[in-house]
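User: What would this chain look like folded?
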Amino acid sequence: MKPKPKSNEVLEVCAASLLPLIRYCLLEGVDYPSFIKALKPVFAQAAQLELGKSGVKITDSSVSLLSGLHRKDVRELGKGNGKSVIHSGPVASLVFAKWISDRDYVLKSGKPRRLVRSGPVPSFESLALSITQDVHPGSILKSMEAQGMVRHEGVGKNERIVLVRESFIPRDDLSEMLAMFAANLQDHISAATSNLRGASPSFLEQAVFGRGFSQASVDQLSKLSRQRWAEYSLDLIKLASRLSDQDKGVAEPHRFRLGSYFYSTPSVPSVPSVPSVPSAPQGSSVKSGEQK
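Assistant: Here's the prediction, encoded as structure tokens.
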């Protein structure tokens, strides 16, 4: 039997991986024609990034040749009719991260300080401005208030802004949630595809997975995952905050994102089971997977 071309195999896998995304799109009223139309600027930008990385001159013809888009479409997108599809994530999440990690905004006990609205460090105004000067601190505060992230205590000179959540999950703001969704998913896929392309050193991209568990057992695994992530992420945020201060003004700045997720669903009988290991409970199978 003749083996499939590599491009066909890649396409099949990528299409299958889109199934959860397409289901969400359908629920939100995004149909096939709309989705296909939205892919044009994605293919154009991807082609430009690859051409730039290869040192090839970026022209309508070169983008068209690599992406498969018609030159007319490439030309229209080049006029600004297509917007960037790279997302960096919400500003409020950066404010939150610094609030729980920076020594200027954290008590000796490790808990985030109650902040005055404006003024020098430590204030909410100084915190927000240390992250960005492109968005007014008042707008950031309103966004965090709407999401239930902060509350006000006291009045007048005694007023303080208090952080009331332990993690940044903007459940009440769809725009913020979508921005975080895009940024997280893009970086996860970027790490995985870089490893597939043979990046060295490879990025951390691992998972532990298994089947044959009861709902109660899955709930127990989920609870442990959340507990460990809360501890680990706080340590990482503190280290990142110190290193960020240390690296201010560095010639070639880099960014990073470390993510974690837990997902469970009833097993589909048609999906082949993963090999069991000696330590797995009877009737279950557990495995750790890593892309290298």
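The chain has a mean pLDDT of 83. If you want, I can go into more detail on any region.
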